[in-house]
Amino acid sequence: MNKTLISIVGPTAIGKTALSIKLAKHFNTVIVSADSRQFYKEMHIGTAVPSTEELEAAPHHFIQHKSIEENYNVGDFERDAIAKITELHRTHNTVIMVGGSGLYVKAVTKGLDNFPEVESSIRTELNKKLETEGLKTLQEQLKLMDPIAYRTIAIDNPQRLIRALEICIGTNKPYSSFLTNPEKKRSFNTVTIGLDADRTIIYDRINQRVDIMVNDGLIEEAKRLFPYKDLNALNTVGYKELFNYFEGKWTLEFAISEIKKNTRRFAKRQLTWFRKDDTIKWFDFNTDIKNIITYLEKQV
Prior knowledge:
Layout: E1 4-9, H1 16-26, E2 31-33, H2 52-57, E3 60-61, H3 74-88, E4 94-98, H4 102-109, H5 120-133, H6 135-145, H7 147-152, H8 158-171, E5 189-196, H9 199-216, H10 218-225, H11 240-246, H12 252-274, E6 281-284, H13 289-299
Parallel strand pairs: 1-4, 1-5, 2-3, 2-4, 5-6
Helix pairs in contact: 3-4, 5-6, 5-8, 6-8, 9-12, 11-12
């Protein structure tokens, strides 16, 4: 195969966007985003969408191309991204993909896993349980039924949590046991690199990023989106905490501290997910770009 997808992964706030732009310039190519939080045009500050300067530095796809009111899932993204990458490969031997949404990255590079059908009544009951007993109860249930899924999926996302639980209940097997299906054949070769750092550095970068988001207008952005707080797209770190503040449940100071804490937890889950993949070549986030390019040029 002479067509390559360079996939850049790693925890949030590690510097994936900056690296992707440098690589896009070097390989004279374009960037496909696999960050599911950056798909929505109404969400900008809280999702750390690349700046205007960054977007102008290299062509980007799948950035703010959907509305929060549209239903768009990982299956839709797999279909759309493969079609776009195939199209881009007609004019570029190499395409860059960047994002920390592990399931969305996997959908493109390896394909989605196939899950058995389960009774729809299970999901109905789980949704009722969510309403009456809250998210924490469902999280504890998954922890008992499938500790691996509990550590790796986005357990703060009710949709993902309920999906995992309904598979566990409906099949009497762990959700994670179905994450081993053979990889789908792609028309391109994939080279995946990861950025990493000591945990204290990652956490400091996250805390600093949240402070910058607040200074840049995150509270005002969340206030505009508050009327849509029940949409699935907005059930995400950075917004749901501020919604609790707007409802008078939390102080602003506590809400911001929770954004930092939940983002740190998210980064930990990202690393747990990506470290299961032994094909990823890891680099320290401070690695000289020349060393990364040298490695990649041997692979493409």
